[in-house]
Amino acid sequence: MLAKGIAVIGSTTIDNIVQGDRSWFKIGGATTYAGITYSRHGIKTLAVTNIAKRDPEIIKKLRKEKIKVCSGQTEATTRFINYLDNDNRRQKIKQRAAPISCAQIRNALEGLNLVHLGPLHPSDIDIQAIKSLNKGDLYVILDAQGFVRSVENELVYPAVSTGLTDALRISNLVKASIQEYKAIIGFYQIDLSGLMRRFKINEFIVTSGEKGGFVKTIFEETVQYQASKAKKADSVKSIKDSTGAGDIFLAAYVISRILKRQMIANASQYAAKLVARHIEGNYIEPKTLALRDRIE
After folding, report:
1. pLDDT, mean over the chain
2. CB of 48 closer than 8 Å to CB of 100
3. N or C: which end of the chain has fewer CB within 10 A?
4. Residue-level pLDDT at 293
């Protein structure tokens, strides 16, 4: 496939990362991690998102990475608190941006042929906007994450949203973590092959952190892949932060597999290596993402 450009759709976030006695702020969301990955591979990239006017630093950082920002009106920028404990993560959503609208997506997609849906919660993207997409001339990539969680009193819980059905219906390629995958299979009471046939999904990626993962095709082929191990940090003060790893993996896989027509094994290993570099702090460097400390 020749890439005319890609629109990454979802919240761009202010992330407060808390690990042990350390806390810092940075930009996040699929628009950031996947967006930067696409852009650094020479692909015309748009971030379709909602960022409050009082947060121009976020837009400036995306534009510095040659990402065009298509932001709508919103009173707030989505804010997460991520509590990290090795590979375990607890999350709170302190505030949410306005849902991304049909009009935003329609205007952004003109001339593009790739869409990467990266919602962070079920109402991140207006469901009518998702329904408006079709598999005709568009290749739709879905990170299922936002549709397998709910938010109650700011806390994020695992739960499959009814909006997932509409999202799967228009998607060509889907990614889910192992926990999300199990929740999806349980929700639909169907095996993965049946799910893919039902929704006409070409490829389904299941990631499992340091355990690797697998890719299944609609033709019943299953390809396992191994995770690439990040090098040990030189300093004991270095922090292992895997935030955004799934977004980078999916974007790198799409670049290698869909755009460069690599075999699944090669594409998944390329994506895994890029993730390892990121966790080392050698891909999207911490200073690229860092935001000034905020008290709000």
Report:
1. 92
2. yes
3. C
4. 66
